[in-house]
Amino acid sequence: MIKPFLFLTAVSAFAYEAVLTDIEGTTTSISFVHDVLFPYAKQNAREFLSNHWDDPEVAGIVGEVKKIASSPDASQEEIAETLVRWMEEDKKHTPLKALQGMMWKDGYEQGDFQGHVYPDAYEKLSEWKQAGLALYVYSSGSVPAQKLLFSHTGFGDMTPLFSGYFDTKIGGKKEPASYAAIAKELNLDPKEVLFLSDLLDEIRAAQAAGMGTVLLCREGAAPSECPCETASDFNSVHPR
Predict the structure, then answer these.
(1) CB neighbour list of residue 127: distance below 8 Å, 6 or more residues apart
(2) Which of 11, 22, 38, 87 could form a disulfide with 26 if both were Cys (CB 3.0 to 4.6 A apart)?
(3) Range of the domain at 93
(4) Residue 101 in contact with residue 148, Cβ under 8 Å?
(5) Domain ends where: 80, 109, 138?
(6) What is the pLDDT at residue 226?
(7) Residue 176: is its pLDDT beyond 60?
């Protein structure tokens, strides 16, 4: 069982000023992302590009796709094939995430699906927010995609709980510099931020930057080499 965190001072209710949370596998079921969101984007990639090919914002992002793919003259069909291949390979390319987010926006707004959030995540995030903790999200999915998920949940619009969002534009999630940059953006010392994730490489990167960490192990036991506190769900996380 996770051990309670020590008080930072005699008058502070929390040892941390902020909680930074991952989404997939942490607040949200991995199966929702892989069984609902990813297939939806793959199935709609060609139609989306066809409908939005001349949109200036989409055209700019497509230009980034061409650069990464080293295909400056790629056709619309070739771009669609590249996006689908990247999704199948689970690439974290920022332009891919941006286009996925745009596709998911259509799905959320049309009521094709709702964003999944674990009940314990909703309850504890709400409790921490009310108690005065600042809450932030850091995911490989684009910021617009993060906001869409949390604004269309079974618990209603959860976006008022969060004070900010971060994606791979600030850096990769396995890079310590990304967490240092987030702390700087929040105007906090890294040790004042508690990071929650289900991936050990992300935990190690956050620790290297000086953040507090908890590894979420929703499905199975914690790895034997785990260098931090672990929790089976948000009810076992005590940022105090």
Answers:
(1) none
(2) 22
(3) 32-109
(4) yes
(5) 109
(6) 73
(7) yes
Instruction: Map tokens 């709400």 to a residue.
Output: 126
Here the CATH number for the domain that contains residue 160 is 3.40.50.1000
- Beta carbons of 163 and 156 less than 8 angstroms apart: no
pTM: 0.80
- Total number of domains in the chain: 2
Inside any domain, residue 58: yes
Query: Could you tell me if 154 and 47 lie in one domain?
Result: no
C-alpha span between 1 and 232 (Å, rounded): 8
Same domain, residue pair 88 and 121? no
Residue-by-residue DSSP string for the chain = -PPPPPPSSSS-S-S-SEEEE--BTTTB-HHHIIIIIHHHHHHHHHHHHHHHTT-HHHHHHHHHHHHHHT-TT--HHHHHHHHHHHHHTT---HHHHHHHHHHHHHHHHTTS--B---HHHHHHHHHHHHHT-EEEEE-SS-HHHHHHHHHSBTTB--GGG-SEEE-GGG--TT-HHHHHHHHHHHTS-GGGEEEEES-HHHHHHHHHTT-EEEEE-SSSPPPTT--SEEESSGGG----
pLDDT in tens, 125-134: 999 999 999 9
Does 52 share its domain with 69? yes
Choose the final residue of a domain: 53, 76, 109: 109
β-pair partners for 194: 19, 212
> Do residues 180 and 190 make contact, with C-beta atoms less than 8 angstroms apart?
yes
Distances (CA, A) of 113 to 68, 101, 109: 31, 14, 9
